[in-house]
Design brief:
The protein is α+β, with helices and mostly antiparallel strands and 334 residues long. It folds into three domains: 110 residues, conserved putative lor/sdh protein from methanococcus maripaludis s2 fold (Beta Barrel); 91 residues, Elongation Factor Tu (Ef-tu), domain 3, CATH 2.40.30.170; 66 residues, Helix Hairpins, CATH 1.10.287. The strands form three sheets. The protein has a six-stranded antiparallel barrel. The protein has a five-stranded antiparallel beta sheet with strand order 1-2-12-11-10, with helices on one face. Strands 3-15 form a two-stranded antiparallel sheet. α3 packs antiparallel against α4 and α3 runs antiparallel to α6.
Length: 334
Amino acid sequence: MQAPVRWFAGFGLATLLVAGLVAAYQASQTRHAAEADAEEPVVAPTLIHRTAEGRVVLELDAAAQARLGVRAARLAPGVATGETPAMAAVLDPTPLVAQLDAIRAAEARVEAANRPYQRLRQLHENGLNASAAAVEAAQAQLAQARIALEAARHRLESTWGPALASLEDLPGNARRLAAREAALVRLDLLPPTPPPETGTALDLLDLAGRKVADARVLGPGPSTESALAGHVLLALVETNAAALVPGLRLTARFKTPGATAGFVLPRPAVVRDGGRPWVYVQETSTTFTRREVTLERPHPEGWLVTGEWPKPVVVAGAQSLLSEELKGRIRMRE
C-alpha cells in the first residue's frame, strides 16, 4: 500500500507545480501587456471634415497642436512701399545670336557688292572700259544686298523689340548673353499697369518670393500679343546671371510711387499646395481652415496682404497642418 500512496502524492505535487508555473506565466504576460500599453502615448487623431461650402476643416485638440508645434496669432498691421509686380521669363539668347550673325553676313554681302559697283561706276564716268549695262547690273546687285540687310535688321527689331535692336554694343552684349555672363528677361505687365521708364531697376524673385537677381528695364519688348494683355518689356540682368537658365519663370517687381497699408503675413505662415499660396486661419481654439492668399507686395518680415483678417493665422507649424490635412484627405477617400 505504501507504493501507491507515494505515487499519488508525487502526482499531486507535480500537478500543483505545473499549475503554479502556468499562473506565473499568465501573470507575467498580463504585466508586460499593461506596461506596453502604458509606454505607448495616446495621440488624439486629427479630425477632418468638409463644410457645406466645401471648405476643409481640421480639428486638433491642444495636445495635438503642441505636438505639431502649431501657433496662431493675429496679423499685425504694416505698410509696404509701392511696388508693381510683373511676370518674368528668362529668354534664350541663341536666336538673337543667330540673327546678329545673319546681319553681319548681310553687311559683308553689301560691302562685297559695293566694291565692284564703285569700280565700274568710276571707270564708266572716266570713259574707260565699263559699259552702262555693267554699271547698272552691279548697282542692282548692290541694291539687292542692301534690301537683304534691311530685312535682316527688321526681323531683329520685330523679334526682339526696338529697345534691344538699338542697344549700344549689341554684338558685345549678345556674346555676354551666350556666355551666361548676362541674361535677357521678358516682362509681362498686368493691365492696366503703365510701363516703367527705360533704365528702371527691378528685382527678380523666384516663385517662393526669394530675390535671385537685379535687372534694369531696356524698353518695349516684342510686339507679339502678351498673355496678360498688358505691356511687354525687356530687361537685362548683368549680375548673378549664371543662375538664370533660359526658360526659367520668375516674378519681377519694380518700385512705384506711394505705399500700401495692410497686414504683415510672416513667411512661415505661407504653405503651397497645387502651386498656389495658402495660410491656415484659426476659426476656434481647436479648428483650422485654409485660405488662399495673393502675394503681391513683399515686406521685410514676409508679405503685405490686404483685406479683412479678423481671426488668428497660423504663424508656426503651418506645414505640419498641411501634412495632416493631406493625410486626412487620403483617409477620407479610403
